[in-house]
Amino acid sequence: MRIERFLKSQFYVSRKATHIGQSIPNDANNLCFKFLKEIIDKRKFNNYALSDIINCDETPIFLESPSSLTLAKKGDKTVTLKTYGKENIRITCLLTIKGDVSKLMPFIIFKGKHNSNLCKKFQNLQVFKDKLIYITTNENAWMTSDLFIEYIENILTKDNNKKASYIGSLYFS
Predict the structure, then answer these.
(1) Whole-number Å distance between alpha carbons of 57 and 103
(2) What pLDDT, on the 0 to 100 scale, is given for residue 167?
(3) How far apart are CA 19 and CA 102, in angstroms?
(4) In this structure, is residue 102 part of a structural domain?
(5) What is the average per-residue pLDDT within 24-31?
(6) Long-range contacts made by residues 63-70, C-beta under 8 angstroms, separation at least 24?
(7) CB atoms within 10 A of CB 146
(8) Hey, which of 29, 35, 56, 141 has its CA 20 to 30 A from 89?
(9) How many CA atoms, within 13 angstroms, populate the side-chain half-sphere of residue 11?
(10) What is the pLDDT of residues 90-110, one digit of tens each?
(11) Number of domains comprising the chain
């Protein structure tokens, strides 16, 4: 209550972004159930263990994520948000979980030349040595087909002690 009175007395208002991103389709539940049934049927038909079923998703992580909400004087035409200038710099993280709910190490892609000094610096980190994360680089910090093969060879096959036979049984939806 006090903060609200103070803001009002100083002519501050809360400003918020006016654009909202994605919306969920109306038939999302049906699509989920249909997909789940298809996966369960394939698992039973092929006699896959739960540990052989994986789900991975890549997500961008911005090094600086300024809030869309800030305080400004009432009536201000321009609202400036001070940042460190890193709001456009991002990494890509590929996260993987198996059907038995075990998680594989994150596959992190930084912007830079492949096998550059940046990669070598990260390889000296303890989390890298302990195999808690896998770090690589790409000119745009994007996942590419070559990096996906690197992911299969260095994360999937090492986790399951299997050869790259995973490539022949990947299922994309």
Answers:
(1) 12
(2) 44
(3) 37
(4) yes
(5) 88
(6) 63/87, 63/89, 63/90, 63/91, 64/89, 68/16, 68/17, 69/14, 69/15, 69/16, 69/17, 70/15
(7) 11
(8) 56
(9) 4
(10) 889 999 998 889 999 999 898
(11) 1
Domain containing residue 134: 2-16+52-164
Cα angle at 99 between 35 and 163, to 5 degrees? 110
The yes-or-no verdict on residue 44 having pLDDT over 80 is yes
d(CA 117, CA 121): 6
Query: Cβ distance 60 to 92 under 8 Å?
Result: yes
- Please name the amino acid found at residue 86: K
Contact 108, 131 (CB under 8 A): no
- Would you say residue 57 lies in a domain? yes
CB–CB of 50/100 below 8 Å? yes
Whether 92 is in a domain gets the answer: yes
Cα–Cα distance for residue pair 23/112, rounded to 1 Å: 34
Q: pLDDT tens, 135-157?
A: 888 888 889 999 999 898 888 88
Q: Tell me if 45 is assigned to some domain.
A: no
Q: What residues contact 156, with CB distance under 8 A and at least 6 apart?
A: 54, 96, 104, 162, 166
Query: Which pLDDT value is given to residue 168?
Result: 45
Please provide the size of the chain in residues. Answer: 173
Residue type, 144: T
The answer to whether the predicted template modeling score (pTM) of the entire model surpasses 0.85 is no
